[in-house]
Amino acid sequence: MNKKTMKWLGALALMVMCMFTFSACGGDDDNGGGSSTSALVGTWRMDFGTSSYSLLIVNQNGTGQYKEFDKGSWEFDFSFTYTYNDGVIYANGNGKTLKIEVLSVSNTMLVLNDFPDKGANTFIKQ
């Protein structure tokens, strides 16, 4: 798997985890604790270059999709199912399980810990 794909999968897993972690909290800048997925549900975008971006789509029913647009076309498309437990999103797809940590989530922003690089990835709600 290339670095870009690994980064995307890590970001996706983190986003899903954030969705579960912060939906039960009432504020815009919650930092963990909840078990509801409502804060994570939606379409999230992360720009990573000129005209290059990732979309993370998280559905209430435990499914999602991660897509990357780069060099004028869709370069990557990954469908997954997810679960959330103790502040961690577990995204399952293509025979692999990704562990993603949610660093923060609000009504407009989702920050996920990118494994294996452990860098923060910020997504903006669309």
Commentary on this structure:
Helix content is 16%, strand content 52%. By secondary structure, the chain is of the alpha+beta class. An eight-stranded antiparallel barrel has the order 1-2-3-4-5-6-7-8. Strand 5 (88-93) and strand 6 form a beta hairpin. The longest helix has 20 residues, at 3-22.
Strand order, largest beta sheet: 1-2-3-4-5-6-7-8
Large-scale geometry:
globular
Biggest pleated-sheet summary: 8 strands, antiparallel, barrel
How helix-rich are the residues, as a percent range? 10-25%
**What is the CA–CA distance across the termini?**
28 Å
Rounded to the nearest angstrom, the radius of gyration is 13 Å
The count of DSSP E runs of length 2 or more, i.e. the number of strands, is 8
Strand composition percent: over 45%
Class inferred from helices and paired strands: alpha+beta
**SSE order:** HEEEEEEEE
What is the mean predicted local confidence, pLDDT? 77
Low-confidence stretches: 16-34
Give the helix tally.
1
